Every structure is written in structure tokens, then in C-alpha cells.
């Protein structure tokens, strides 16, 4: 019955601790109570045929109940030993994937600051859940303490001097939590959080760099001051174009040819690989692309003549 109880508790407890929410420990207590009650009932029915004395029977049943608690405590200590890995995994999952669990593409519209805050808050919730064993319904303020020390204290707008001067994590024990039920002390939480932030900072920096690069690649327009300068300095040329409409026709033809060359060479995509590789690649494709465009224009010009020639023959 101890083996059955271990099997019934180990994996579900691990899954509940991995989810790390406000309902984690209440769910573990409910699971422990249900499975222990079932195991004790089965053992009590099984040993009733052995005609044991009452003291021995109570001892066996109590031993089974304590075994269930020890399984949960052992699993909680195992999970607490690798809490940093769990925190980084949770941060990476929430930061690098969107609400549909698809890889996030940094196009420049995402609020990286808000996404980072959400991912770090979820990681802090995991740390708060694993800080102590809560098999009894005694209340504690671990979640509030961690939020006050790790999140609120980091805000630049914080003006409360008591928050800044007093470090709530400068202690080796939690308030209203016995030492035997402590898995991660306040000082250890502070050290883990500092290491966690240092190891996830690179991910945030890479996302910001990718977002800035995407903005630069998609922004082909010059700055506003350059547009204003071109309008002012190019007024005379603009009036010349209005007086000579032939220039507009020539510019339109040049624009169409340039647009066709731009699309055929895929210049925007080429320059994403670097300036020098793009020049080398474009230099090899420029002449064949021009010849291809001229060939297409010639083909289009000859296409209408074929039906006319056929009608003349008939």
C-alpha cells in the first residue's frame, strides 16, 4: 500500500508543482487527502483479517498516512533543487511564444517590456510556490514578500523609503513558516532571482535587437527633415516638370523599369544578408535580369501582331 500510494502521488504532485499557481498547494493537499484516505481504507480492510490489536493497527495506519506526506515532501524538495532550471524554462516559454504557443516573431509592434514583466512574474510565482511546503492550511506571506522585494523594489517610480531601506529577503527564514517546512530561504530566493535575471537578460537583449533590425529593414523612407529639405530644395525642379509633361512620361517609364528591376533582383531581401554579399550577388544577376526584362517587353510587343497577321492570311 505504500508503493501504491507513492505511485498515486509522485507524478501528479510533480505536475502540480510545475504549474505553480495560487491553487497548487490546495490541490496537492486535496490530492494527498484523497489518495491517503483510499490507501488507509484499503489497508484497514486488508489487515482486519489478521486480528491485530488496536495499537498495532493504528500504528500501521499512521505509518501509511505519514508515508503519503513524506512522498509529497520528498518530491517538493526534488523540485526545489532544480528551481532555477524550471524558472528559466517558464520564462523562455512565455517570452518566446505567443498566446497560441507559436514562436514569437519580433516585428516591432510587440511590447517587450510588458512581455518580459509577465514572464518574470510567472517565474517569480514558481519560486514562491517552491519556497516552502504547505501541507497544512497555515497562511504565509511568501508571495507578498517576494513581490515586494523583487518586483516593486525594482520599479524606478518607487518612493517608499521603507521599501528601499529594509530588505525583506535579508533573512534565513520565512515569517510564520517553520524551518522544517522551508525549502528555499529568503536569502537563497534573492540569490536565485539575481542569477535568473542575469541568465535571461541575453534573451531580452536579443529580442530588442531583432525588433530594432526589423524596424530598420521595413523603414525605407528618409527622416521627416530630409523630406522637408527635398520639398524646399526641389521646388524649381518640380515646376520644371509641370511645364514639361514629357519629363513626367520619361520619369514614369524609368519608374516602371526600376520597379521591375527591384522586384526581379529582390534587392530588399539581398541586403538583409549584408552590404558586401548583396553587392556581389546583385552584380552577377543585374545583366541577366535586364536582358530578361527586355525580352519580355519584346515578346509582349510581338504578341498582338500574331492574330492580325493570321487574319490577313485568311
What's the oligomerization state?
single chain
Low-confidence stretches: 156-164
Q: In total, how many beta strands? A: 0
Strand content is under 5%
Largest sheet descriptor: none
Helix count equals 14
Structural class: mainly alpha
Helices and strands, in N-to-C order?
HHHHHHHHHHHHHH
Average pLDDT = 83
Compute the CA-based radius of gyration: 35 Å
Structural features:
single chain; 314 residues; mainly alpha; 2 domains; 74% helix
Describe the structure.
This protein is mostly helical and 314 residues long. It has helices at residues 2-19, 24-47, 54-81, 83-96, 112-130, 142-151, 161-165, 186-218, 224-233, 235-243, 245-265, 267-270, 275-302, 305-313. Helix 1 (2-19) packs parallel to helix 3, helix 2 (24-47) packs antiparallel against helix 3 (54-81) and helix 5 runs antiparallel to helix 8 (186-218). The longest helix is centred in the middle third of the chain and has 33 residues, at 186-218. 16% of the residues are buried.
Amino acid at each position: 500500500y505504500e508503493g501504491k500510494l507513492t505511485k498515486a502521488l509522485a507524478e501528479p504532485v510533480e505536475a502540480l508543482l510545475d504549474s505553480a499557481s495560487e491553487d497548487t498547494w490546495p490541490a496537492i493537499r486535496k490530492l494527498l487527502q484523497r489518495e491517503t484516505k483510499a490507501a488507509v481504507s484499503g489497508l484497514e480492510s486488508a489487515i482486519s483479517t489478521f486480528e491485530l490489536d488496536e495499537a498495532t493497527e493504528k500504528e500501521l495506519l499512521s505509518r501509511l498516512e505519514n508515508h503519503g506526506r513524506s512522498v509529497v515532501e520528498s518530491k517538493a524538495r526534488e523540485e526545489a533543487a532544480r528551481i532555477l532550471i524550471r524558472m528559466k524554462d517558464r520564462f523562455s516559454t512565455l517570452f518566446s511564444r505567443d498566446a497560441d504557443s507559436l514562436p514569437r516573431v519580433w516585428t516591432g509592434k510587440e511590447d517587450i517590456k510588458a512581455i518580459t514583466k509577465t514572464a518574470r512574474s510567472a517565474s517569480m510565482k514558481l519560486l514562491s510556490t517552491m519556497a516552502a511546503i504547505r501541507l497544512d492550511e497555515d497562511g504565509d506571506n511568501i508571495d507578498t514578500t517576494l513581490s515586494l522585494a523583487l518586483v516593486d523594489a525594482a520599479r524606478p517610480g518607487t518612493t517608499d523609503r521603507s521599501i528601499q531601506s529594509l530588505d525583506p529577503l535579508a533573512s534565513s527564514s520565512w515569517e510564520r513558516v517553520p524551518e522544517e517546512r522551508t525549502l528555499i530561504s529568503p536569502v537563497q530566493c534573492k540569490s536565485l532571482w539575481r542569477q535568473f535575471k542575469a541568465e535571461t537578460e541575453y534573451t531580452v537583449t536579443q529580442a530588442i535587437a531583432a525588433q530594432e533590425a526589423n524596424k530598420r529593414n521595413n523603414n525605407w523612407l528618409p527622416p521627416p527633415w530630409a523630406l522637408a529639405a527635398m520639398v524646399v530644395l526641389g521646388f524649381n525642379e518640380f515646376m520644371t516638370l509641370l511645364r514639361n509633361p514629357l519629363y513626367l512620361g520619361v520619369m514614369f517609364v524609368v519608374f516602371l523599369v526600376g520597379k521591375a528591376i527591384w522586384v526581379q533582383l529582390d534587392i530588399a531581401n539581398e541586403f538583409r544578408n549584408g552590404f558586401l554579399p548583396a553587392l556581389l550577388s546583385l552584380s552577377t544577376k543585374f545583366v541577366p535580369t535586364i536582358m530578361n526584362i527586355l525580352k519580355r517587353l519584346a515578346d509582349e510587343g510581338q504578341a498582338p501582331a500574331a492574330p492580325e497577321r493570321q487574319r490577313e492570311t485568311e
